[in-house]
Amino acid sequence: MPWLEWHNRSDDLKATAKTPYRLLQPIQSLSYGDEDAPNMLIQGDNLEALKALLPYYAGQVKCIFIDPPYNTKSAFEHYDDNVEHAQWLSMMYPRMVLLRELLAEDGSIWITLDDNEAHYFKVMCDEVFGRSNFIANVVWEKVYTPKSNGRAISSDHDHILVYSKSAKWLESGWNLVPRSDEQKGRFTNTDNDPDGPWRTYPLDVRTEDGAKREKYRYKVVLPSGREVRPSAGRHWVLPEERFQEEREAGRIYFGKDGDAMPTKKVYLKDAKQGVIARSWWTYKEVGGNQDAKREVLALFGDSGFITPKPEKLISRVLQIATNPGDLVLDSYLGSGTTAAVSHKMGRRWIGIEMGDHARTHCQPRLVKVIDGEQGGVSKTVGWQGGGGFRFYQLGPKVFDDQGRINPEIKFEHLAAHIWFVETGTARSTRAMKSPLLGVHNGTAYYLLYNGILGDKTLAGGNMLTMKVLAGLPEHDGPKVIYGEGTNMTNDRLRSLGIKFKKTPNDIRAR
Predict the structure, then answer these.
(1) Residues 169 and 286 placed together within one structural domain of the fold
(2) Is residue 379 in a domain?
(3) Which of 305, 339, 360, 472 is packed most tightly, with the most Cβ within 10 A?
(4) Number of structural domains, the chain?
């Protein structure tokens, strides 16, 4: 498959592996609401924050929505959007790699961009996510009226590139969107049908099936007395017996004068509860830039944000890509819109923002949401308040510059990291009292660290000895054991089905 080349590409391919793994430190004074709420607001560089989330949330995020800097060659107040093209791609590539790892198998990612980088970015995402997982380029009409942009054609739209993690998203990961009033209005009841409003669909189709052409090209006598058949190369979709049944039941329409080609009635009461989303989203459907600015002004006054996204736009994405309780992630949280809408719609969420406005804008906005703020989509979704979130900032690295484990690292955090590195799956960070991390594909993983066995001495705590081994939770199968050292020979370890890994030397910072 062709790929996109840019300056320093080879270095950028390794950037994810070189990114240090850091702790996430909770800030109680900035957290709000229900203490057991799973929602996370993280302040810090999003590359390092995404790496820090991997041990806990790899493969668990149902929907990622990001609105990254557009690289429009103009400096914004809250972030520098004036980044040279290659540098912009260098910034985005490793972040896309980490975001893909966080996605669930039936998950999807939605990225908003304009014409400055969207087409280059599409090629890059084909490489990261796989071209077969490209779902659509949604075109969002972002402005109400044309504007001069110095190019003779008004730029009225943005792109929303949509990718899935795998084919599972197409099988079961998406939803229909609710019918609009306009779409409902297409169902009428001009003949006072007792089954209620209806609309019609053609009864003849084009086909290459020779047998069906003969069998399904039967003659139909219209109420007017005129005889009709499908035109050349087409046939009826119903066998003749079934056609007669539907006709007798009043579910075939022949026009107001009874002289039109027959069509099938489809009733509103029997129609699907929604419609498939189209790739053209108008400002009337999902709001535009002006709507987003009004929402932000109502929340913050003159905040300086000139490119927020309207809540209705995020709501449409979440309607399609998630269900209540699913996990949503935005690693370019900006003014907090994705987290706010996710919260109002009953989704779990993680928001990452590196600047001070993680505290000055995102945190206050989400406090207002929990308190029942009624702007944006609140009334539409019936939001009345509730829930909570925890505020985090990036903490120290797991390893110091000499490769030693940082003494601030707690057992449960190192355990989550090792579990992810070994299995590629996430685990809870709840306080643990057992050195057995779990069993994956028949192999048990153990960690001897920080006195987990209750004995702080080297020989009895973090050192693998026969005595320590006898006290470990049993597993009838291969074992991987991390510890500071062992006095057992390699032959002895092999005979016991143990692969020993020394901390910190054998702990990979994936």
Answers:
(1) yes
(2) yes
(3) 339
(4) 3
Give the H or E element holding residue 392.
Answer: strand 388-397
Neighbours of 281 (CB within 10 A): 23
**Residue ending a domain, choose from 218, 238, 267:** 267
Question: What is the residue-level pLDDT of the chain in tens, covering all 510 positions?
Answer: 677 887 778 887 887 888 888 888 889 899 999 988 999 999 999 999 999 999 889 999 999 999 998 765 553 455 565 567 788 888 899 999 999 999 999 999 999 999 988 999 999 999 999 999 999 999 999 998 887 666 788 889 999 999 999 999 999 899 999 887 778 788 899 888 999 999 998 998 887 766 666 788 899 999 999 999 988 888 898 989 999 999 999 999 999 899 999 999 988 888 777 889 999 999 999 999 989 889 988 888 766 666 789 999 999 999 999 999 999 999 999 999 999 999 999 999 999 999 888 999 999 999 999 999 999 999 999 999 999 999 999 988 877 777 677 777 888 888 888 887 788 777 665 656 789 999 999 999 999 987 666 555 554 468 899 988 998 999 999 999 999 889 999 999 999 999 999 987 787 654
Q: Are residues 342 and 388 in the same domain?
A: yes
Of 470, 435, 439, residue with least CA distance to 451? 435
* Measured distance CA(77)–CA(136) in Å, rounded: 32
Task: Tell whether 310 is covered by a domain.
Answer: yes
DSSP 133: G
CATH code at position 130:
3.40.50.150
139: exposed, middle or buried (Cβ count in 10 Å: 0-12, 13-18, 19+): middle
507 located within any domain: no
**Does residue 497 lie within any of the structural domains?**
yes
Domain enclosing residue 491, as ranges: 411-502
Q: Residues 91, 197: one domain? A: no
DSSP character at residue 153: S
This model's pTM is above 0.85:
no
Query: How distant is the alpha carbon of residue 409 from its chain centre?
Result: 30
Domain closes at, from 396, 431, 452: 396
The answer to whether the CB of 22 falls within 8 A of the CB of 51 is yes
